Amino acid sequence: MKIKTIIGTILLASAGALPIHAQVGEQRHNFAIGINGGINMNSVSFSPTIKQKSLMGMTGGLTARYISERYFKMICGAQIEVNYTQRGWDEYYEDYPELGYTRTMNYVEIPFLAHLAFGKERGMQFFIHAGPQIGFFLSDSEKSEGDWDSPEQNLTTEQHDKAIDNKFDYGIAAGAGVELRTKAGNFLLEGRYYYALSDFYGNSKKDFFARSAHGGITVKLAYLFDLKK
Asked: pTM, whole model, 2 decimals?
């Protein structure tokens, strides 16, 4: 929840720093659509803890953005995406390098993002994104290596072969990047972090895991073309 508080503070501070007479900005009606794609570096926050290294997955989908106005040098708008995304985790134990377990989980994810940009309306811009995100679980796959039943290992394996209990995922997404706006379209490069507030395994007192939430860093490219300027 700390990330949500930080994002809210930044947005409020930005709004509060504007002069009163600037609250009505220069109106814009720029609507753009396009495609995006990139990679995720995933992990899962488990309690009890499971040792992991990052699991790489793909992400890609459709983007729609509306720019509504400009406050001096800040361009304000909103962006929504519909993405196919791979999440999950990759277990790694230094004492047992022969063991391996990965779980790849496929989702349709929909982030609802505030878009704040700084720079020239034709040329290079720096932007930040922040907002809620929801996801719908589609399917998963597992890969296991080594003998996990050896008694001397004493490793947690309750997560192996366990069915997903909660197929609706939600959390907070925030990122930053650069955009090149040209006559041929708009090209964006972004780094984004996702912090899930939901658990995909049951988290009641009778369940083994108190927390099982996605997290990860995404690096993506996007191409948008203007439908209305």
From this structure: 0.85
